Structure formats: C-alpha cells, structure tokens
Amino acid sequence: MTSGLVDRFGRVHRDLRISLTDRCSLRCTYCMPADGVPWLASSTLLSTEELVRLARVAVSLGVREIRLTGGEPLLRPDVVDVVRALAGLRGPDGPLDLSLTTNALRLPALAAPLRDAGLARVNISLDTLRADRFLELTRRDRLADTLAGIDAARAVGFSPVKLNALVMRGVNDDEIGDLVAFAVARGLEMRFIEHMPLDAGHTWRRDEMVTGEEILEAVSARYELEELGRDGSAPASLFRIVGTPATVGVIASVTGAFCDRCDRVRLTADGQFRNCLFAHEESDLRSLLRDGADDARLAEAMQACVSLKKPGHGIDDPSFVQPSRPMSAIGG
Ligand code: SAM
Ligand code: SF4
What we know:
The structure is a single chain. This protein has a single domain, classed as TIM Barrel, CATH 3.20.20.70. It is built from ten helices and 14 strands. It has helices at 48-60, 79-87, 107-117, 131-138, 143-155, 176-185, 212-222, 285-290, 295-307, 327-330; strands at 15-19, 65-69, 90-91, 94-95, 97-102, 121-125, 161-166, 189-193, 225-230, 237-241, 247-251, 264-267, 272-274, 283-284. The longest helix has 13 residues, at 48-60. It binds S-adenosylmethionine and iron/sulfur cluster (SF4). The site of S-adenosylmethionine has 20 residues, from β5, β7 and α10.
C-alpha cells in the first residue's frame, strides 16, 4: 500500500472536510426539510479528542487542508477547542490550511475566539440579500444575523472571506449581480454554486438547475470579466472584474464536474469516512477507533476507502442514485 491517500486513478487526496454536527439553525429548502432530519444520536458523535486523532492520522497520510462544515459547525459547543487543536497540527508543509463554512449566525459571538484559536479564513453562505426571500429560503427570519456575521468576519480580519450563493431558478437567479456588488463593496469574493441533488426532500431537477454558464452570463451583464482559470484542484472557476482586484467564482459541480482533479475526502460527525459527497459507502472509523484500533489500522482504513473512489459523481448518468444521507449530514 502507498504511504498517502491515492486512488486507482492517481488522484492524491490532500483536502479533508470534517462535519462537526448534522444540526442546523436554518432549514434551507435545498438542504433540509422544514422539520429537519432525524439527528444523529449523541453517543455516535465523535468527541473532540476522537476527531482530532482521526485528523492527525489523515495529516500523516498527506492531508494539508481541513475545512470544518456541517450542518452548522458553529452549533458545536466546543468548536473553538476543535479549531485550536486542529490549528496545532503540522503537515508536511507546516501548519494546515484550516477553514470553516458557516451560515454566519453565530459569528458575531465566535469570530474573535475562532481567530484567536487559529482559524484564518471562512466561507459564508448567503443566497439572497432580501429579508423576505431569506425567510422563504431558509425558513428562518435571520438575514440581519447573517449580515452581522459577515461584518464580524471582516472586523476580526479573516482573510479571505468568501461568500457562497446557491443559485436557483425563479428563486434568487435575479440577484446574481446584486450579490456580486454586495461582495465587491466589502472586498469579499463572491462564489456561485450549481444546485446539486443532495437535498433531503429530493427536489432537485436537472432541467431546472441554473447552470454555471447562465450564472456567468448574468454576472457579465453587469461586469466585464477576465477569466483567471482554476487554481489546481480548487472547484471554482475564477474571474476578475476588469479594472478591480475583485474576483468572482463559479462552482459548476454538475455541468463542469471537476471529479478528475478531486482531492477531497470527508469525515462525518459520527465518524464515517467518505471518498465522495455522492458515495454510497462509508468506512466506519468510529467503530474501529472505539474498538481500540491503533493509528496504523485507522490509516489503512482511510486508504482502503480512498482506493474504492469512483472516477466521478455520475449525476448526469441515467443510473445516478442520490446518496441516502443529505448534505447536512455528510458535510457540505
Ligand atoms: N451550514 C453551513 C453553511 O450553510 O454554510 C455549512 C454546511 S452547508 C451544507 C455547506 C454548503 O453547502 C452551503 O454553502 C450550501 O449552500 C451548500 N449546499 C447545501 N445543499 C446543497 C445542494 N443541494 N447543492 C449544492 N450546494 C448545497
Ligand atoms: Fe443549514 Fe447550511 Fe444546510 Fe442551510 S445549507 S440548512 S445553513 S447546513
């Protein structure tokens, strides 16, 4: 067996996404049903110590980047301790590239402690600038709290702060230009994401999805863009707004799948290791760990899981079947 996380196609995995919880303070229609989903039993959730041990093993296998996500990662009571412990890990190139994806609701309280614990950058989800739409989309009347969270992220100096919007036809596709203007005015990078079939309600329709190309057209209607291409395995195609330092990203996960360059693996809050968002199999690291496996055995299980990774997510394949876990439980 090789020493790193390498699959059959030669893809080397260096980016680990860790879901800190499956719970959330919002109920985005594309992610969760109104009543939420059956939550993971607390006895199955990894403790901070267990989570950091698995992260350390992954780092010993070449992981250099860790992104914390969920559910809403800031709902985890010990999120600052988790960040502090992970910020202390060292990869082959020194400290890890540690980041967090959040709905920002708790950032006014947590931005400063998270920065002090070693978090350098955040991605914040913001699909609309209109309060009535925010309520419709997330089923919670909390746009003002998200905006306060964005201000808090800027105030404590996270850099970069990226804003992510999922674009949906007839829902928020008329706000693409406004979202870019909002981000540019604050020195933030706006990124647009294609809707993927990962919602618990199974509402995704290929022919209703707003494509990356359409998103780009909408941005171009307001701004002159210069293509910057893609940075290594990063999923976003980047564009500079001509005459400014501002960049806009388009993540075309469906129409411009980047599976051939994917370097991501995932760990769910209940300790299941996944080689793809869309995978149907998971490797049960929690049971191994609680049964007393040593680090070498855990590393072997991670490598075995990666070796089974498929070439692509196959969304466009007629035989595509959505994974049984929703995005909120896998970790987006
Ligand atoms: N709660 C945090 C947040 O919203 O940023 C972190 C978890 S959330 C699952 C991570 C990202 O996944 C968000 O930017 C969200 O828009 C995106 N997401 C959720 N469901 C999606 C779907 N069906 N297709 C594409 N992106 C999705
Ligand atoms: Fe929560 Fe993020 Fe899913 Fe929205 S996208 S329901 S904020 S986990």
